[in-house]
Specification:
Layout (H helix, E strand, L loop, with lengths): L1 H5 L1 E12 L2 E12 L3 E5 L6 H8 L7 E6 L2 E2 L4 H7 E4 L11 H11 L4 H14 L15 H12 L6 E5 L7 H18 L2 E5 L3 H7 L2 E6 L2 E6 L1 H8 L4 H9 L10 H11 L6
Parallel strand pairs: 3-8, 3-9, 6-7, 7-8
Antiparallel strand pairs: 1-2, 1-4, 4-5, 9-10
Length: about 270
């Protein structure tokens, strides 16, 4: 197990992202090992979303390097994209299609061999307890059912890494617990690497093997939940997090970074 865990699945080195004069991500480095559950935490506007977009090939870094399962995400995008699945913060399934149709569409887009698609769909919808609803339109699903479908869809192409961006946002406690049970089962049975963000700090405390906290574009702390609590002389991850990032409210709709981006756009600036 030690040899397996030593393999780096995600590596970011000296990563920078600038939007004009605004530095959203400022020279960060971190590594995530195979089979690790890694929580990436930070206030609104801290640089979390920008970092995830770079990791998942949606944004090109200004400088620095990222590898995903050994593939450079800038120069080997196709191979890197096949290495991961992602569940976005905002729902991305098509409400007018059935669960099975959503799965088929994703399978075709990712080049899953046609002869294997039906078998994989049955296996994964069964895993998230949606096989009985495979022919129901997604618009009839609850928020929790949609999240479960998105996880199943993200696993169709057999990724080695799963990104979860605020996966339990807006879900009730029972559904949140059920979703994390699925994730932990995947992590254990397939040695799948999990990279997630959340504002529910008790989730990170209970689930993550390692944690990185980003604020104002810089990683300000890394380690296990217990190590971060020891470092800050606190008794919970939430207390440690607040001690590290402060208690000032961050405006989700117009965080510091977002306000600067808006000003840059207003001056006619473009983004790359």
């Amino acid at each position: 197990m030690g040899e397996v865990m030593a393999q780096e699945m995600i590596a970011a080195s000296s990563l920078v992202k600038r939007f004009g004069e605004v530095t959203a991500v400022d020279n960060i480095s971190f590594k995530v090992k195979k089979g690790e559950i890694f929580a990436f935490l930070g206030p609104n506007g801290a640089g979390k979303s920008t970092t995830i977009k770079m990791l998942t090939t949606l944004l090109q870094p200004t400088s620095g390097e990222i590898t995903m399962d050994g593939f450079n995400v800038v120069h080997q995008q196709e191979q890197a994209r096949k290495a991961f699945g992602i569940v976005f913060q905002d729902p991305s399934v098509d409400d007018e299609l059935t669960a099975k149709e959503n799965m088929w569409l994703h399978a075709v887009l990712y080049g899953v061999p046609r002869a294997e698609i039906d078998g994989r769909i049955e296996e994964l919808l069964g895993l998230v307890e949606l096989w009985d609803r495979r022919n129901s339109r997604v618009k009839t699903f609850s928020g929790g059912m949609k999240r479960r479908l998105e996880i199943a869809r993200g696993l169709l192409h057999h990724p080695t890494i799963l990104f979860l961006d605020e996966p339990t946002l807006g879900l009730d406690t029972q559904t949140r617990n059920l979703l994390w049970n699925y994730v932990k089962s995947l992590n254990k049975s397939q040695t799948m690497t999990i990279f997630f963000t959340t504002h529910y700090l008790e989730e990170a405390e209970n689930i993550a093997d390692n944690i990185a906290i980003i604020d104002h574009g810089k990683i300000i702390a890394t380690g296990t939940a217990s190590a971060l609590m020891k470092q800050t002389k606190t008794k919970s991850l939430e207390a440690a997090y607040l001690k590290l990032t402060g208690k000032e409210l961050r405006d989700e709709a117009a965080s510091g970074t977002e306000r600067l981006k808006l000003r840059y756009r207003a001056r006619g600036g473009g983004f790359r």
